[in-house]
Amino acid sequence: MSVRVGLLGATGAVGQRFVQLLDDHPTFEIAAVTASPDSAGESYRDAAKWRVDTPIPEGIAEMTVRETSPDALPDDLDLLFSSLPSSVGAEVEPELCEAGYVVSSNSSNERMAEDVPLTIPEVNPDHLDLIETQREQRGWDGALVKNPNCSTITMVPTLAALDQFGLDRVHVATLQAVSGAGYSGVTSMEIIDNVLPHIGGEEEKMETESRKLLGSVDDGELSLHEVDVSASCNRVPSLDGHLENVFAELDEDPSAAEVHEALESLDAADLPSAPGQPIHVFDDPERPQPRLDRMRGKGMQISAGGLRETAEGIRYNCLAHNTIRGAAGASVLNGELLVEDGWV
Amino acid sequence: MSVRVGLLGATGAVGQRFVQLLDDHPTFEIAAVTASPDSAGESYRDAAKWRVDTPIPEGIAEMTVRETSPDALPDDLDLLFSSLPSSVGAEVEPELCEAGYVVSSNSSNERMAEDVPLTIPEVNPDHLDLIETQREQRGWDGALVKNPNCSTITMVPTLAALDQFGLDRVHVATLQAVSGAGYSGVTSMEIIDNVLPHIGGEEEKMETESRKLLGSVDDGELSLHEVDVSASCNRVPSLDGHLENVFAELDEDPSAAEVHEALESLDAADLPSAPGQPIHVFDDPERPQPRLDRMRGKGMQISAGGLRETAEGIRYNCLAHNTIRGAAGASVLNGELLVEDGWV
Amino acid sequence: MSVRVGLLGATGAVGQRFVQLLDDHPTFEIAAVTASPDSAGESYRDAAKWRVDTPIPEGIAEMTVRETSPDALPDDLDLLFSSLPSSVGAEVEPELCEAGYVVSSNSSNERMAEDVPLTIPEVNPDHLDLIETQREQRGWDGALVKNPNCSTITMVPTLAALDQFGLDRVHVATLQAVSGAGYSGVTSMEIIDNVLPHIGGEEEKMETESRKLLGSVDDGELSLHEVDVSASCNRVPSLDGHLENVFAELDEDPSAAEVHEALESLDAADLPSAPGQPIHVFDDPERPQPRLDRMRGKGMQISAGGLRETAEGIRYNCLAHNTIRGAAGASVLNGELLVEDGWV
Amino acid sequence: MSVRVGLLGATGAVGQRFVQLLDDHPTFEIAAVTASPDSAGESYRDAAKWRVDTPIPEGIAEMTVRETSPDALPDDLDLLFSSLPSSVGAEVEPELCEAGYVVSSNSSNERMAEDVPLTIPEVNPDHLDLIETQREQRGWDGALVKNPNCSTITMVPTLAALDQFGLDRVHVATLQAVSGAGYSGVTSMEIIDNVLPHIGGEEEKMETESRKLLGSVDDGELSLHEVDVSASCNRVPSLDGHLENVFAELDEDPSAAEVHEALESLDAADLPSAPGQPIHVFDDPERPQPRLDRMRGKGMQISAGGLRETAEGIRYNCLAHNTIRGAAGASVLNGELLVEDGWV
Lengths: 344, 344, 344, 344
What we know:
Four copies of one chain form a homotetramer. Chain A is of the alpha/beta class. Chain A has eleven helices and 14 strands. In chain A, helix 10 links the parallel strand 12 and strand 13 (302-310).
């Protein structure tokens, strides 16, 4: 079976990761690429200044870049992936859904909307049920599904694994790679020999998205999880891979060994791009490290380490590749789930 | 008045900072420098491969490096500063104190001993009273005074300012510069495009030293503060300046503005190297940043920023220059306090 | 004596260096600052996101930013410094000169024009004679004087010192800091764990500007030096300080010691911002290094090292602070020369 | 066919690359690993702190590390690879050759000896003829073959391709990655925000090894090439990949297009680890870049770019992965050549 996909915002840093990940995908086939109007009509090779460290796929390189609008897309696409800037996404994605397209989107717009599934397949695949609510309320033939922010997705699978111990409150500090801000988001003058202690909107995203992801959907209605998350987000001079220090307060009092076991026992998703084990836990307290461990599971496995019992629960570190597991790969995985569950 | 000082471990990264800071000190005059036996007999210029970004002071450059032992030091020194490796400090510092020297030490040995003052002049100058206890118990003519670890000293003055609101529990994550590990402590292969999530012993130091610094000394007896500190310590690719994300749980419920006010109101120390205001608070959430702000107050002022009220208290960032305020400058300041209080 | 200066393009990376350098200048007083029309009317504090590691001078912070045009400037300015983008400079600088202003400019436009002095005070102060030619040909009351590109200015004083040995051909490779591209010129994604082997137009600038700087002016007419310069320019992950590897082919056959002597003997300029000795030569082959040596002479001294005789001449390294000696400081020095020689 | 190989100095940075490269080699099978006496008896997993970004091969992880001496090695090895420190190599390699082992070595000792082949399979495979001379003169049953220094090997294949135009003189400046100095060779304090303009012995290696590699072997006798090479070697803050700026003076006057053609026409070696095309030439002057291009051809292809005609010849850049093509991969390739030519 082949699923013909369109790639919205295909020339940016995340867009290029989509192209790289989809290059040898077992079922998805890139059939259209879009970018800003400036680039429309150019070849993908010319429009995207290719910066990924594998060669540009030749089949995509010669594709003509289209505008990002329902009219400019071919009719026979089965699925769209979106890494549009959120302001553009906010405008175009609803038009596309109304026109009947199913969109798996990495853009931040509407992530917290009550009728939009915000999904990680290993955490809350059943939230796709919200699509029914969405179609009813919005009168769409298509559907809009979101994946969370890269800093959220690094942590939430670990929280999902800990929820069995009564997840109460979380403090988290992030050390985020520059690629999370896009290709030009962080200048070298800002970050060499430095750390940036503020990423606009990032802390709020972690605090709110986590509660939605860990929440439940019953009869098409969303309930947020009650966990209280406080985040401090920092940008550091690494290229890829967000490392996060988590302090979790738990109702129960599991040992570090029990937490280790719980983290490694999170159920895998049976999807082509999903790692066989969602979370790998290191015994060595010096791991995970961004450069050494971000590519575990082709960039889709989350790593954890540094488990230590505290007075009120457990502290640990977690790591994920922010533009693969945290962005393009997250959308691809949601796309695979949409196919698996029959929405595509 | 001139105070003749000896510098123990003068050739390392912190030792060079001592030389730089003392070069134009109003009262302290370097009269002797020591290093490991390998270097004894060499000129300081040859023994210390000078790497600080100001020229080597000519007067010190031609001094002959001595061994680090009571016998090798001149008799007429008034005060010793120590940045010895802690294993060496553990052996030599007691011998020197027994021989009558007053030692202001940055080395980590004995920091938590009940009769050794662990002091930040703006926080707990009265802990010097422990010197009486120390002399009684150990039979010393000299005295041993310690400053805390660089990661601790960055945070504790801010906690001292918050204690008026009932300091209950603290979660802190650090983003520490490579100079904190000494000149050769972190290789370039380890840290370029990377973060190291573990610094041996660092988290325990922050958790225990904080309680001692914020504790009280009555009748020569030390009581620890009851605050519960949980720390996660990371090494990042910056040269100097430790940035820390603090989440403080407070009994009271001050506004961010009240916390801002409290931080800037911490009493200054009336000592030559002390900044006029110990803590500067930025309104701009993007500050403080290590490279831009570490040299405030000649590297002795602590910066804070990113204040935000949380459900249980306040979160904020703080920053200090780790080899000045956090090491050499901390010892110099304690030395000035020892002079001021008549111990020297 | 006070000289009232206007600063064109005052909010960029080089503009901020101008403000920093002029803050405590003995004679120059900033009386006006300009920026792009977007910023006009704002305070300098708001328009310039201040990123230099010393505090923003309070007197300048509250100045109102003006547009960059003759009409928008006060009449009583004695001198203008320009760090405009070259396309803007090409348009506005002639208008200002026609309106009677004397402009000392760091912008690259018209650097190679035959009637525009391209000057380094220690190398070719007499090229200011071209101002007469310029006024005659262009009918200006004012004057336009340029300093060379930052990569050129690092090398040319050393070549000037070697010219006594018959300078024949030069091969040079540069390792240039990111600040040379302006605050946003090099993204972190481009340069972390990387080197960029191409800087648009830079090699040609080094090859042509060198010949003009080393050339002669007789009777108001310029003759280029005959030296053949081949340059390879690279961007590396350092913040400030261009390091250059030079291979100079000479007609004569001086020893490394003679070259050392010649480099250190280049005549100093008797101007407030000029270093007492233009070039410092290190014996240690590991120096100069950008981070350790860029601030020698307050960023105005050039360093050299690694001298080694070759079959055809001499190889050595040289280093200068690219935004001080190589940009803002270069213009300030030319401004001081213009005052000294009576053009202002 | 399976060739049983021993790996001398298997735990260092280059040693780990050997293990990684040989993990799925079609013919070579690691049968023994050695390290310094301290590690002898430990498992490879414990002795080598594994830092490569692919998992440690399980089969090797459990091997017991041996001492590096003829007595400690099994008798049934067909070939040894050596990445010993040169002082150790100088002592042990001759003992091993005397004991009958064939050694393909990356260590720098004896590279310039007249009877030791210094070989790059695409450049001078016939230099293996020197083994006859070596055996005669030294009375060995085994053989010692060397590959050149990592900075040399990046450039020499390009020079070999240019020799048809009459290679006369070369100026080269290198921008070398930190991994070239071994895991602990460059500290983070040295290189962050900096460049090191000196690498001990490196320039001489480039200048002498190039002449041997490009020279000829007739009747078992070596003649050096007459090209005059002048090198300036710099360390920059990149992890892997040496970039070099070459200025080649040629007797003939080829166009840039002819040089492009010549570089891409260098004959490939028909060996398992050899790239199908030894040198790839970019038209884009911004390439090659270390991070983007070092892994071309699994780290074995050399890249070139930035071709520009000069008065006396051609300037261009070249790049190779310094620990693959420039070290472990170079030795493996020589090992494959030794097998192919029947020496093993």
